[in-house]
């Protein structure tokens, strides 16, 4: 790992990275809409915000694990909501809804990300307790880059629920 990436204050921006794989099995988590603390998948409301607001609303945020290759190493990084939206193109709740309506769409989303070249700004966790570097920002390098949701909509169409990924291209 680059020394700059291990310090809390210095983000690291390799000239380019290639996405080798994306873990789309568990790409989002439930969070409080007010404070954005993570919440259990099937639990109740935020214990902190529920003191002030009865039944605070919840939402889904991205937590996308990516395996990326730089010019000299392979890393596993995590892209949270703001960075992941650049690649995926919609809020997490919209993508989760799309994937639940179309069998295999989450897997296809991971396949669509494979091979994308991007400029990532990476940083260690603020608390220093995270296993993976965090993606602070993403800049796709391909001229014709389109977020994943646009390609998924083309592949699966409006009324179709199962399309073979290999036949779509």
UniProtKB/TrEMBL annotation:
Span of domain Replication factor A C-terminal: 17-134
Stored Pfam families: Rep_fac-A_C
Domain of life of the source: Eukaryota
InterPro entries: NA-bd_OB-fold, Rep_factor-A_C
Protein's UniProt name: Replication factor A C-terminal domain-containing protein
